[in-house]
Amino acid sequence: MTSSRLFLARHGQTSGNVAGILRGADSRHDELTAEGEAQALALADKIAALDPDSPRVYASTYTRTQQTAAPIAQLLGVPVTVLDGIQEIDPGEWRGRPYSDLKTHFDELIGPDDRVSFPGGESQGEVADRFEAALHTVLARPGTPIVVSHGGALTSVLIRLLRLPVVESWRSGRFAPENAGVSELCRTVHGWQIKK
């Protein structure tokens, strides 16, 4: 039996988010702000209200996702499992640039064959590959995985799971989750779909 329901959530707010600067792995020890902690509690309530069957909670190797996952796990009565491969995208040469450049200078990231890639860092496809590989074992077990990750990584894997055009989907910002935002996905005969 495999999972047919999947929750993908973004961590709560950090001071790095407030500053709005791309930092990649440099931000791995960032902690939630007071606002981020409140967001994590609200996210836990929201997910619990959706009544996931046999829930399993996962977080990336970064501090902020583990802090966000903790109240979810506590409310659902399960542990948090740290899952490698779902960490934030490596922005490479874009490290230190403001988030706003993702809109104003997005064309610099577009490559051939519907590709979005950070120079000296990772591409959307590479992040989706590692994220999907991490999900493979998680989804092979029964129950409902609740995965707490990061904005760029979640955008990358959502585009992959929903089989959408990369450049157009990334540019639209439609799949860029807000802090403590969550997407519920259901597996159908046609593949994964976001539950409305």
How do the helices and strands line up, and which of them pair or pack?
Blueprint (H helix, E strand, L loop, with lengths): L4 E6 L4 H5 L14 H16 L5 E5 L3 H14 L3 E3 L18 H4 L5 E2 L3 E2 L7 H16 L4 E6 L1 H11 L4 H7 L9 E7 L2 E4 L2
Parallel strand pairs: 1-6, 2-3, 2-6
Antiparallel strand pairs: 1-7, 4-5, 7-8
Helix pairs in contact: 2-3, 5-6
Keywords: Glycolysis, Isomerase
GO molecular function, one term: phosphoglycerate mutase activity
EC number: 5.4.2.12
Notable features of this structure?
single chain; 196 residues; alpha/beta; Rossmann fold; 6-stranded mixed beta sheet; 7 helices; 37% helix; globular
Q: By CATH's scheme, which homologous superfamily applies?
A: Phosphoglycerate mutase-like
> What is the CATH top level name?
Alpha Beta
Query: CATH fold name, please?
Result: Rossmann fold
Give me the side-by-side strand order of the main sheet: 3-2-6-1-7-8
Strand runs, count: 8
Order of helices and strands: EHHEHEHEEHEHHEE
Mean pLDDT: 95
- Determine the fraction of residues in helical runs and give it as a percent range: 25-40%
Instruction: Write down the domain tally.
Output: 1
- Overall shape: it is globular
Helix and strand composition category:
alpha/beta
Protein name: Histidine phosphatase family protein
InterPro entries: His_Pase_superF_clade-1 (IPR013078), His_PPase_superfam (IPR029033), PG/BPGM_mutase_AS (IPR001345), PGM_Phosphatase (IPR050275)
Enzyme class: isomerase
Keywords: Glycolysis, Isomerase
